[in-house]
UniProtKB/TrEMBL annotation, chains A, B:
Protein name as it appears in the record: Regulatory protein, luxR family
Highest taxon, organism lineage: Bacteria
Alphabetized CDD domains for the sequence: LuxR_C_like
A Pfam family the protein falls into: GerE
Record keywords: DNA-binding, Transcription, Transcription regulation
The organism's taxonomic lineage, starting at the top: Bacteria, Pseudomonadati, Pseudomonadota, Alphaproteobacteria, Rhodobacterales
Example of a GO MF term: DNA binding
Amino acid sequence: MGYLANAPRLDALIEGLESADSIERLQSASVAFRDFYGVNHVVYHWVNSAGEQYGCGTYDDVWVDRYLEKGYLRVDPVIQGCYQKFHPIDWKRLDWSSKAARAFLQDAIAHGVGNQGFSIPIRGPNGQYALFTVSHICSDEEWEEFTTGHRRDLILIAHCFNQVALQLEPGRAPDQGQPLSPREVEAMTMLAIGLSRAQAADKLSISEHTLRVYVESARFKLGALNTTHAVARALSRGLIVV
Amino acid sequence: MGYLANAPRLDALIEGLESADSIERLQSASVAFRDFYGVNHVVYHWVNSAGEQYGCGTYDDVWVDRYLEKGYLRVDPVIQGCYQKFHPIDWKRLDWSSKAARAFLQDAIAHGVGNQGFSIPIRGPNGQYALFTVSHICSDEEWEEFTTGHRRDLILIAHCFNQVALQLEPGRAPDQGQPLSPREVEAMTMLAIGLSRAQAADKLSISEHTLRVYVESARFKLGALNTTHAVARALSRGLIVV
DNA sequence: TGCCGCCTCGCTATTTCTGGGGAGTAAGAA
DNA sequence: TTCTTACTCCCCAGAAATAGCGAGGCGGCA
C-alpha cells in the first residue's frame, strides 16, 4: 500500500474526521480508517475531565461489554502502560509479564482484537486522557513495516480524533471559576510540594494566618471541600505545577 | 510555497530532527525548520518531570535572557493560555487583555518575536509540558493561510521535538519507587476528590483506620511529607485521576 | 512450606488544620 | 474619584490529621 498514491484519500478521510460532530461520526471515521489501512481494528478511547469514559471504534460489542464487565481497564497493559508514556508505543514493548495481563491478552485475541497493536496516548490539562489504537493480526515483521511506514499519519489522526472529542465534551474548559491570584498560586504550590502551612508561610515570608487566607480563598475559588482537594484541583487544572 | 513540492525536503528535515541527540541538534533543527517555512522564529520549550525548564529555538539570546530576567514566564499569555489547552492555538485567540500581557507583547515585538504566532502544547504523564511555537511578522490573512496550510506538519514536528526531548531527559520515568496497590490508589483518589478520611473510609466500606494505613503506605511509597503532598504526587505521576 | 505483600481492624496522644469572626493598606480598574 | 481586588495581620474552639504501638487472614511466589 503506497503512501503517496493514497495520500489524497487519506486527506479526505482526515477532513471527514475533522468535521465529525458526534460520537457516531467518530465511530464511522474509525471504520473508514480501518478499511483504508486494511487493519483489523481502529479504536479511540478517551476519558474527559470529569473522569467519564468514552470509546468508539471497530471492536465487537461483545468484546467491549466483556472488557468493561471483567474490569480489564485495571488489567490492560495498554491502558496502564500508555498512561505512563507520552509517545506512541507498540504493544510488544509493553509489560505483559503479569498473570492477569497474559490472561487478558489471551482473551483479547480470542475476541479478534489482534496480536499486534500500536497505541498513541494524548493527554489534556484537566486530566483528559485519550488513546488512539490500531490493532491487527499479522507477523512481527509485517507490523514493524506497517507502524514505521504509517507512524506519522497515525499521530496526526490521533490528534484529530482528540480535537473532535474535545469539542464533544460539554463546556467545562472555559474557566470554571475565577483564576487564582499570584499569592494564592504560590501558597498552593508550597502546600503541593509538601510544606506545612507554617513552613509555607515562612517560605513566602508572610504570617501563617495570611497564608491560610490565601489557601481558603483558593479553596473557595476552586470549589474545593478541603485543602487537599484544592491542591488536587489546582494541579488538575494546571493552575500550579509541582 | 507549495506543500507537495517540498514534502520530500520536509521529510528529510523531520528525519534529521528524529536523529537529534542533544539540545544543540534540536537548536539547529529549529533553524532548519525556520528556514524551510520562511518564518521568523521556531521555538521549542519544555519542562521536564523535575520542573526544570529547557528551551531551544531561533530567538535572540538577548530576548531569552530578558524573558527569564523579567519573569515573563508568569505573564506570557502563550504559556498561561496553552497550559490550559491541548490543541494547537493561534496567539490571536489568547487573552491579551491584562496590562502585563500587553506590555509583554510590546516588548516581545520590539525584540523581533513576531506579531503572529502558533503554538502547540503537548504534555506528559509526569508533569512534562512542552510547547512548540512558530512565530512570524505578517498580516492576519497571510498568517491564517500559513497556519491552515501547515497545521498538520507543525503538529507532527511538535511531536518529533517532543520525542527527542523525552529521550534527552535523564531516566526519571522508570518507576521512581514502588507502584501503589489498588486499595491505595482508591484511597488516594477519594482524598483527591475532597472526601475526609472518615468519608473516604465509608465510601470504600472499610474502617477509617484501614484507610489511614493505605494513605500512610501510599505516602511512604511516594516519598511524600504529608497527605496533601502524597495526593499531589500521585496526581502528578498519573497514578490517580480525578 | 515459608516469606512477602496486601487487606483488614483497634487504641492513644500530640500536632496541625479548619472555619468562623474582624481590619487595614496599596494598586489597578471603571 | 470611587470601587474593587489583592495583600497583609490577629484570635479562638472544634475537627482532623499524624505518629506511634499492636493484631490476624489471604494469596502469590520461590
